[in-house]
TrEMBL record, chains A, B:
It comes from the Bacteria. NCBIfam families: lao (TIGR00750), PRK09435.1 (NF006958). GO terms for cellular component: cytoplasm. It comes from Pseudothauera lacus. Belongs to the SIMIBI class G3E GTPase family. ArgK/MeaB subfamily. InterPro entries: GTPase_ArgK, P-loop_NTPase. Gene3D superfamilies: 1.10.287.130, 1.20.5.170, P-loop containing nucleotide triphosphate hydrolases. This is Methylmalonyl Co-A mutase-associated GTPase MeaB. CDD domains: MMAA-like.
Amino acid sequence: MNETLLEAADRALVDGVLARQLRPLAKTITLIESQREDHQMRAQGVLEALLPHSGGAMRVGISGVPGVGKSTFIEALGLYLIEQGLRVAVLAVDPSSSLSGGSILGDKTRMEGLSQCPQAFIRPSPSAGSLGGVAEKTRETLLVCEAAGFDVIIVETVGVGQSETAVANMTDIFCLLQLPNAGDDLQGIKKGIMELADLVVVNKADIDPAATTRAQAQLKTALHMLRPASPNWSPPVLTLSALKKAGIEDFWRTVCDYRTTMTRSGEFEGRRRHQALAWMWELIDAGLRQRFRRHPRVRAELAAISTAVELGESTPAVAAQRLLQHLN
Amino acid sequence: MNETLLEAADRALVDGVLARQLRPLAKTITLIESQREDHQMRAQGVLEALLPHSGGAMRVGISGVPGVGKSTFIEALGLYLIEQGLRVAVLAVDPSSSLSGGSILGDKTRMEGLSQCPQAFIRPSPSAGSLGGVAEKTRETLLVCEAAGFDVIIVETVGVGQSETAVANMTDIFCLLQLPNAGDDLQGIKKGIMELADLVVVNKADIDPAATTRAQAQLKTALHMLRPASPNWSPPVLTLSALKKAGIEDFWRTVCDYRTTMTRSGEFEGRRRHQALAWMWELIDAGLRQRFRRHPRVRAELAAISTAVELGESTPAVAAQRLLQHLN
């Protein structure tokens, strides 16, 4: 889309975002999150105009079960980064927020110090319903925040459902927060989440140093048994206390080391390219499925054919073929 | 498809399979594996006729890295099951076999004792190319073997690529074989594979009993840290020596315990229904993508648009929309 085709109102949004003004930024995100079709078209135009100015931030994903101290950690990290002269945006992916009325980041008082900083921008999870919808809008918001000159974008997610995969797929480094009560209680690590982690952090290390050391050792063992995603990076296990602001500097140094290592090997750019292409294919697949499901004959037959497959009365191949031929 | 519509030759295949004759069984599988379109149509007709007679076997997936002793284990297990009066089929999923000329099960001499038993049927991996193609043909072969009255169907895969997921998605229980040299060498456990395991086996326990005990403890710890797939089953870690035929009976008792537990909770049937439906959707998605990629305007633009997305010159959403609108 050509930038010159933008309406004056949208042109003003683009200029405002690029001028790092918070009101146009918030308005642009609202446009992105809108369900209205005309808003969505306008949002894509604005996004295309902003795209050449995006890509400059470090994208940091943060996950962990409720109670692990995510907001305290993000507040401490955010304030530390601002002290270093950086601007920080905090976004969230929480597909449950439309049901629960906003379980994470809905309440800015959770990060009181950070939310009062002019160098910080905090945006709760969009309440678009499905994970796909929520993740897509957060990914687009991330690009807008980059165009607005934020140096670090933190994307938070709660350790429930498939949202961790979505966040790992839109960030440069995925960090998993853990509690020090290892062993049985570590069952909070869900299937496949440990493998996503580029960095594991044991929070609340001040409460029980002995338990923290045990948890760190156990997590190291578990990570050791998984083949790392990159030949150049073995996910480390750090310990810190977000409440006492101890270990935050060490955390950030590790993130910077990661960035240096991955940039040097070409994996940093490679991951971003791969993420963008995978995202495009995700949207294509979703679009193809949506068209398929809307087809009148598919709609008429899908339920009965699905039941026949479940009951072993039809093979999946014959069922798929029967439904697909309606598209001819 | 109506059975009465089958040609005489295909009717003879169906009758032969149901009469548990090995030649019609092998011919049917060859028909399924054929790339010819007319063969594929015939194969679907034969499969539909056999489908009501399938579902009776215990479907056991076996995976592990090269050198872990998969064929020795499958041979020992197969011979044990035959001693118990059961009939055993051994299939394989190996997407690399078309390249390597058949890396697993290609050579029946690997399971010399078992291959000479009339109660056993061993079939190498189809060499259809892509994992999707290989897995689909193996899944269909599995149904044919069930219609031929086999009591246990073992599906072997090599611990490389995504083939473990494919095998876990077509079997009732997925077993992961491990070597006793734990610790550093356990890096052979790939991302996400540990989570697929319903049962872990440390093979070659006779070589180094101390190392075996350590490996068992470490694997238990690692499994313990992952939330199990079923609330009713925590994947156990067994030790055995396939070479000495020690522990095979214990292995099979555990498989039977699993079946009893999962049947009682309804998860056994639930997993099969879910697998069948997921398989149908996999084929639908593949079919939709194939049609999409074949569309002349998509073919003309896909490469350039993909590059623009990778380079951050176009958003994935705009790119997907642009390509999808060609279907209108």
